[in-house]
Amino acid sequence: MAVVAQPFSLSELGSLSFAQLINLSILTTYLLTVFGLFLYLLPALRPPKAAGDGWHVEGKDFNGQAWVWAVWTIVSFALTWTYMFKFLYHSYTTFNSSRAVASPHSFATVADWLVHTTLFLDAWETVSTGDLGWFWSLGVCGFTVAPWTAFLVLEGRRRAIPRLWAFLLLGQLCAISVATSLFFLAVSRHQRLPRRRILPASHLIAARIGTVLPTISVLLHPFLPSFSSLPPNAWAYNLALFHLLPFLPLLLPHPALDPYPGTPRHHESLYPIAPPYHALLLLRLLAEHRGALPAALWAHLNSHPARASIGWDVLCTAAAVLLWAGMERALGWRDIIASASGGVGGLAGSVFGRWEKAMSEREKREEKIGKGK
């Protein structure tokens, strides 16, 4: 009597081909990496212990702000990954139903799906095609490659927050809104250092390369298919480029421990031309859809699980930036409305830039008071 294998039986793994095992391992590794990054970043969320070297100060308690960011991290994860899992299930069922005879759910069927599907590239093509899709995609990409990378580099260094590169990797693998909220949680528990490290020229150059070049890469992305001289897969190389370049300033060694009297005035120069481009795209969409644009954007967001995932990522990121602006009193409502046309990147650039300017002025006043004593 033949023995029928149970669905998802571990015994069937031995009968899978090498290609099936590799693709199954890639998806498993991806999910475990996301989970592992949360564990890896736990030490970065703890305040540093007080030290007598003049460079570290005692961290803050887990106060109300920290609780807000902890809750918003969970909310952002729930909203974005609900649709991430729906996208995976949608892709799997679409593949299985396209067969002449649908296969029973098993490791072999899942492995076949992964072998014959380019999940990441399919998702990117789904979310970035057309002006409505690019509006949502540009919101995430424009925010990540410019203002948030700059904020990670400069504010993370000033507060001696460790493992900064892991926040960016978590944002790319999990969701930018989740990583942003988690970094705000780390910021809320780390005091600014009373003395600052000088950012050497190499770090400033790396910061500009890690923000300006990927921003240009993002802005060129929708136009690449129109260049017939480029290879068909040029968009995939460009996609990899603006995902990898922002890591450059985060992976450099920490600067030398030299005192710096005030906040360097380089932050605003790290917010390039993404906000005006986003504003032009918004004007183009308004000309096409007029008063129906909000409904068109909402309908596009809900038209596919992958689009919903990135759309909610944009909305949760915007909400996180607004929350942070309100807590830090970094931007008035008039300024927020004026900068909103630049998308999440324009909003964050205004918030972070204004806040940095206020911090610089406060440090100058404190320095004068210190010299007067």
Explain this structure to me?
Helices cover 68% and strands 0% of the residues. It is built from 15 helices and no strands. Helix 5 packs antiparallel against helix 6, helix 5 packs across helix 13 and helix 13 packs parallel to helix 15. The longest helix has 34 residues. It starts with 17 loop residues before the first helix and ends with a helix. 37% of the residues are buried.
Record keyword descriptors for this entry.
single chain; disordered N terminus; 373 residues; globular; 15 helices; 0% strand; mainly alpha
Helices and strands in order:
Blueprint: H1 18-45, H2 64-97, H3 107-115, H4 119-128, H5 130-158, H6 164-173, H7 176-189, H8 201-220, H9 234-244, H10 248-251, H11 274-289, H12 293-301, H13 305-328, H14 333-339, H15 343-372
Summed up:
The chain is mainly alpha-helical and 373 residues long. The protein has helices at 18-45, 64-97, 107-115, 119-128, 130-158, 164-173, 176-189, 201-220, 234-244, 248-251, 274-289, 293-301, 305-328, 333-339, 343-372. The model is unreliable at 1-5, 51-57 and 256-266 (pLDDT under 50).
